[in-house]
User: Fold MBL fold metallo-hydrolase from Streptomyces plumbiresistens.
Amino acid sequence: MLTQVSDPIIMTVKQTGDVRIHTFVASFAYSNIANATHIIETKNQLVLVDGQFLAPYARAFRDYADSLGKPIERLYVSHRHPDHWFGLGTAFTDITVYALSETMTFIHEHGEDSRSDHWKLGDLTPERIVVPKQVASPGEETIDGTRYVFDRVTDTEIDYDLTIRLPEIGVYFAQDLIYSGTHLYLTKHMDHWIQVLQEMLVSDYELFMPGHGLPADKNEVARNIEYLSAARQAIGNGLTNDTFKNFMLQRYPERKCPGIFDIYMPRLFGGASDY
Ligand SMILES: [Zn+2]
Assistant:
């Protein structure tokens, strides 16, 4: 059965001086996983974070960016999971794309395999793969008058994750370090992931932009820590596969997008490949 598509959520999240932050969240329904992509709008231009997954959402995200009437200066891909970059080949082939060098190498080497692995999605997948051409390095850069801080976070939800912070306005683009209101994609790196989230809790940042779900506050970051701790304990107690999934579904009935269990469990509990 093909994944069904329904309305995304589009909102302006914050405005401070010349900077506006927008978010675009794909559906929470059916087997969608509420992919969240963002726009940093400054005086003269736009910077985008991630490129959506399924073709209709990628096109709608691009349409929204274009409706703001400013050029897209660049787009950052946060990490190598295809739900963050498949949409580049659908709607962002003309845009300069930045990513960590590890993410670039992965998409270069495995992008096509990933696309053929998703054949069941039919025309919801992109017609081609776009490999990011520009390296995003840890450090600071001022873009259109706004200071950005980039970091390379290892071994959490993914091996290499790019985070982007705007210290002057207190916004932290955490992408898949935070699943906001949805079930998390779990990996074996839960200890380090929890540490990184704990650092967020004692930081000066107030608004956390997730890779899935709606914009988050520190309470949601804390709830992610609690979820990871519970999952780690359940696995330590010997729960695997369906017994683990049922335990987590019962413990967190309020969280959406349970389809994610079937994506990560073959990797966490079996020997399935990383992509
Ligand atoms: Zn993701």
The mean pLDDT is 95. The two ends are 21 Å apart (CA to CA). The longest strand covers residues 171-180.
